[in-house]
Amino acid sequence: MIEVKNLKVSFQIENQVIEALKGVSFSLNKGEIVAIVGESGSGKSVACQAIMDILPSYAKKEGKIIVDNKDLDSLSNEEKRQLRGNKISMVFQEPSAVLNPLMTIGEQIVETILAHKNVSKNEAKELALSAMEKVKIPNPQQRFNQYPHELSGGLKQRAVIAIAVVNNPDYLLADEPTTALDVTISLQILNLFNELKETLNMGILLITHDLGVVAQVADRVLVMYKGELLEEGKVSEIFDNPQHPYTKKLLSSRIFLSNSF
User: A single GO CC term, please (predicted)?
Assistant: First the structure.
């Protein structure tokens, strides 16, 4: 389990202090998908960065993040590095910003394996091809030797997911992973997350502003606004009986948009 306890994050920018998270607490279990929803600036991505311990140097963090009974703050830098990729991985919103344009897809997956496992390059290649098959990249042998610019947006996102899951982490943090994709490809990616949850017992934290995405795959939902957690519960509870006025507005705006097409 990942436990986030009273997490506060602020940024000192020039003479101004910006409070990104104001005492947020939640958990993520293995074998479930938890969605964090809210508009831009609500603190969703900052929560992911805090869990991955990749906040910028000018950030101030308070509270506790506990991964399988280990407090992140008690770990050394090397232990944290091993945690990232082995225990927890992250899928970012824009794959083109993550993938190295000068390396083939296969090289980038292999690099991730060799950073965490003591295996030969040939063994790493086999593991990489297996991960590409796992995330349903067609013709993995061919794609292995291709560069990012040779892939479609959907295939690039699958490649990023392959990098994230190749070391079989227990937890996957996905930050707006379908925003840049069309509806059909988005649905395929969401179905892939569901399969990872079911087949690997993976816990997935899904960051999104799209309630349609939440309804599609999530088991629980957390509603955030301006750095605060306003409401949480099972998806059916939140959709059928929202308690907070902000949650009701989110749901009504979704209904309005769907009726306008």
Answer: plasma membrane
C-alpha dihedral (37, 59, 173, 230), degrees to nearest 10? -20
Residue 197 CB coordination number (10 Å): 19
Q: What angle do CA 151, 156, 159 make, to 5 degrees?
A: 120
pLDDT for the residue 254: 63
For residue 67, the number of C-alpha atoms closer than 13 Å in the C-beta half-sphere is: 22
- How far, in Å, are 107, 133, 150, 155, 238 from residue 147 at the CA level? 9, 17, 6, 11, 42
Is 2's pLDDT higher than 50?
yes
Cβ distance 232 to 220 under 8 Å?
Answer: yes
Amino acid at 149: H
Return the minimum-mean-pLDDT range out of 39-43, 198-202, 233-237: 39-43
Domain ranges of the chain: 97-168
Neighbours of 253 (CB within 10 A): 12
CA dist., res. 10 & res. 3, Å (int): 20
Question: Tens digits of per-residue pLDDT, 202-218?
Answer: 999 999 888 878 888 89
